[in-house]
Design a protein that fits this description.
Number of domains: 1
Helix content: 25-40%
Organism: Rhodohalobacter sulfatireducens
Number of helices: 3
Largest sheet: 5 strands, mixed
Radius of gyration: 14 Å
Order of helices and strands: HHEEEEEHEE
Distance between the termini: 20 Å
InterPro entries: GxxExxY
Strand content: 25-35%
Shape: globular
Protein name: GxxExxY protein
Number of strands: 7
């Protein structure tokens, strides 16, 4: 399955979750619901994946965690915030660089319409 096909499945699942729950819940709730929906689509999902930083020859466990990692190809960062800002974009770009993945989704569920909360992020390795 390509990154784009996985991305399509992620967008569909995020919209389904938002339609069923609406805005205003905790990030952890949306993450769990999204994980459930993606697993129903027969995708391999890992949650809260530790992401170390390698500095020179040292591997540093800094506490970075990917919310959901789909097929070890696409990174998902789940948010439930009033507004997205530059730090959220920097966070997912950092996760993409550290994981070596090309595609990520920044999903903010605290919006009236889910399409307003979806940011597709590409890492130009």
């Amino acid at each position: 399955m390509t990154e784009n096909q996985i991305g399509d499945a992620i967008v569909r699942a995020a919209i389904r979750v938002h339609r069923n729950t609406g805005p205003g819940l905790l990030e952890s709730t949306y993450q769990a619901c999204l994980e459930y929906e993606l697993k129903r689509s027969a995708l391999f999902i890992e949650k809260e994946v530790a992401l170390p930083v390698v500095y020179e020859d040292v591997k540093l466990e800094c506490g970075y965690r990917i919310d959901l990692w789909v097929e070890q190809k696409v990174v998902i960062e789940v948010k439930s915030v009033e507004a997205m800002n530059d730090i959220h974009m920097a966070q997912i770009l950092t996760y993409l660089k550290l994981s070596g993945n090309k595609l990520g989704y920044l999903l903010n569920f605290n919006v009236p319409m889910m399409k307003e909360g979806i940011r597709r992020v590409v890492n130009n390795l």
